[in-house]
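quick one, 278 residues, struct below
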Amino acid sequence: GFIGSNGAGKTTTLRILATFLKPSSGTAKVLGKDVVAEADAVRHVIGYMPDFFGVYKDMEVTEYLDFFGACYRIPSGQREKTVGDVLELVGLSEKKGALIGTLSLGMQQRIGLARVLIHDPELLLLDEPASGLDPRARIEMMAILQELQRMGKTIIISSHILSELQSLCNRVAIIERGKLIYSGSIQGVRNQMETSHIVWVKIGSDPDKAIGFLKTQSEVSEAEMVDGSIRVTMASHDAEVSIIAETLVRNGVPIHGLREEELGLEEVFMRMTKGETQ
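---
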């Protein structure tokens, strides 16, 4: 996941990686290939979907995809199957004979994704792929990206819909004013931004007794009743949450639910950035 405020440099970075822009300084490599010195080689291993892209609205879907297959020098005898495969992947097999101009925006976005998949790239660079889509079309797009992830595709995706990135991505990069301020796992940035480790416990009865038992444990710094549940503050991020269940079960307290509080990606982003642009 690649996130940052408007003007932070996300689109510029993706365009450099896609070989559309030359870096003003430094170097950039994709799968070991320099984006300037080996631009042609880079283009064959990536699929780039910009935030706004034009489509040939008077062309049929299969004609459009066949054209791009030819651009990538896919043999003519193989292109029909390839086009059928990518249309099936994006869920538009039944639209193969339709004019692109008659399709909804969500379908056109999926056709755009099919286009970047036509040559089976190793890496996908997606700049706001769900931009402007209604909720259903956005959910369908994310489901397709999850399927691509299961297929082993590496995806770099820029999006302002951080809740969706949170469920899709295993790593995140945060950029501000053209500078990378974090790159790593989502859990890593959560740990970095969390001020305390909170666990919520739902019990059957006698919360005061349960709170008393929990406060005897060195791993627990605080326990209190909040909105019908016990809010437990652990003494450190490394403290074992299992001690809560062990303590309550050992003392005969029935547990109805237990969950760790996690910072959402939106909250992490707001805490880490200042909203500054270049």
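The mean pLDDT is 87.
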